[in-house]
Fold this sequence. Notes:
Blueprint: E1 2-7, H1 18-25, E2 29-33, H2 43-46, E3 51-56, E4 67-72, E5 79-82, H3 86-89, H4 111-118, E6 123-132, E7 135-145, H5 154-176, E8 180-186, H6 202-205, H7 209-217, E9 218-219, E10 226-229, E11 239-242, E12 247-249, H8 250-254, E13 264-265, E14 277-278, E15 281-286, H9 287-292, E16 294-299, E17 311-315, E18 318-320, H10 342-345, H11 349-357, H12 369-392, E19 407-412, E20 418-421, H13 423-436, E21 453-455, E22 474-476, H14 477-485, H15 492-502, E23 520-523, E24 534-537, E25 555-557, H16 562-565
Parallel strand pairs: 1-2, 7-8, 9-12
Antiparallel strand pairs: 1-17, 2-4, 3-4, 5-6, 6-7, 6-18, 8-15, 10-11, 12-15, 13-14, 16-17, 19-20, 21-22, 23-24, 24-25
Helix pairs in contact: 5-7, 11-12, 13-14
Amino acid sequence: MNIITWNINGIRSITQPLQEVLNSLDADIICLQETKVTKDLDEALAIVDGYTSFFSFSQARNGYSGVATFCKTGVTPIRAESGLSDVSATQFSSISDTTVGCYGDLSDFTREELQLLDREGRSVVTEHKIRLQEREEKLVIINVYCPRADPERKDRAVFKLRFYQLLEKRAKALLDSGRHVIIVGDVNTSHKKIDHCDPDEDKVFFANPGRRWLDQFLCESLAPPMKPIDSDDELEEPGYRDTDHKFIDMFRFFHPTQEGAFTCWRTDTGARQTNYGTRIDYVIASRPLAATAFSGCVVLQHVRGSDHCPVKATLSCQFLAASRPPDLCSKYAFVGKQPKLLTYLSGHGDKASKSIAVGEQIELKGCDSKSLQTVLKKNEQSQSKRRKLGAEVKQSTMMSFFKKQPIKIDGPRANGCPRSVSPVTAAVEEFTASSVSGASLNSTMPVTSSQETISSSQEATDSDPQNPETASSDVTHTELIAAVNAGLPSNCNSTKVQWKNILTGPPPTPLCKGHREPCVLRTVKKTGANLNRQFYVCSRPEGHKTNKEARCDYFQWVVQPARQRR
C-alpha cells in the first residue's frame, strides 16, 4: 500500500483532470496540502470516481491554506475529522460517532487559542482499519500543513510553535489509545543540515525553534525504552510498550546520507533547475509501526505541477475498507441538492434535442418528456435568433483601426476638386513647406531611419493611377528622409541633437560579470525603503555558490532619472 503527501500549491491550478493526476501518482491514500479552496467546492474536485475525499477549509480567509485527503474506495476510513483539537469536533456533535477523538490534555491551551489554531484548515485526521502481522489494528493518518514563520511577524513564529505542540499532543494521545500514527505533510522546517541547500552556521541553524522541536519529537533508533505490560490487562496482550512515544522520519530512516533530496524550491528564481531547495515535506511514523510496516520511502522530484514535489511511502500492511464513508466525506455535501434546469440546457441543447428526435426517453422528477421537449425547442429557437442577429451585425475587426485613411488637403485638382493624398505625402509636403518658409523645427519630431516600408492605404475609388496627384505609392523611410532633408534649414543638426537628448530611450541591459550574459530586471516587492525599486541580476537560476552553471552574484540598481527621484 502506498501513501503520498504533496503540497499542491492550489488544487485549482491543476491543468489536467484531477482524477488523471491522482491516478498517475499510483497511491492508495493521497494527502494534499495548500489546496486554497473554500466550502463552496466544485463537485468535480470534491467527488472523484474511485476515491473518497475529506477536506479542511480555512475560515480565516478565502484562497488560503487548506488540506485534503483522497482515499481509494478500497481503503475508505472508518472515521474522519477536520482539525487537531476537540474544538472543531464539537461543531459536529451530531456525528461524534464518526470522529476520531483522543485529543489529550489541552489544558495548556485556551479555547480561543485552539480555535485560532484550527480555523486555518491545516489538518485532516482519518482513522483506518489495517491488518498487520495477522492482527487487526487501527491506524490514524494526520495530514497537516504546518504554518510558515514569517520573519517579519513574531506572532506567526509563536503560532507555528504552538501548532507543533498541539500536533504532538494529539499524536501522543492517539498512541496512548493503542492506535498507530502516521503524520504526513508540509512541516515547513528542514530538520538537518543535509536537508537544506545552504544552511547557516551550526549555532544559528540548530537554534531555530522549529528544528529544536523536531529534535525532541523525532528519533533515529527503532529500539525504544520499553516497559513491561501487565498480562492481567484485559485491553492489551502481554508484551512491552513504547514509553517515550518517539516518531521516525521515514525518508531519513531509509536514506540517512542521501544529499540533494529536496522537496521545495523557489519558483521566482528558477531554483528547481539547479536543485537549490529544502526538504520540508515528511512522512513521519510512530516507532512500532516504522519497525514493522514500512518497506520504503522516496522523494518524487520528477513530478512537476507545484513548487513542491511529492513524497511516497510504501507499507506492507493491508487496509480494510469501511462499508460507509464517515460523515466528513465531501460527497455528502452534494447529496440532496436539486440540479438546476440550466445544467440540462447549457452546452447540451443540441444533444438533448437529437435524443428526443430519435425517441429516446428522458425522465426528470416533476417534468415529463413532452414538457422538456417544449423547453428545449424554445431554447433552440432563441439560440437561432441570436445567431442570425450576430450574422447581420458584424463586429469590426482590429485591422480596421490600423488602415490608413486618405487625408484631404486643400489644393485644386486639375478639375478644380480637392485632391486626396496619402498620409505620408501629406506629412512630407507639410514638413517641407514649413521648413522652406523658415518655420521653427523645434516642434517637429525628426524622422528616424528604418528599412521598413510605409504603404499608402488610399481607397481604390479615390485612386487614379493615371493621375500623379492621386496615384497611391509605396514610400520608404529613406525616400521620406531625402524628401524632408531637401528643405531643411541649416540648424537641422542642432535640432536632432536636442531631440536625442529628450528621447534617450531605455538604457541598455547590463551583462552579468560571471557569464557575460544579459541580466533580468526585477522589482522589490518587500515593504521598506526600496519598495518598487528595480534592479538587475544574473538571468540564470539560483544555485549554490560553488555551482558555476547557477546564478552569479551580479547585482545593479536601476538608476532613476532625476525627475523621478524628486
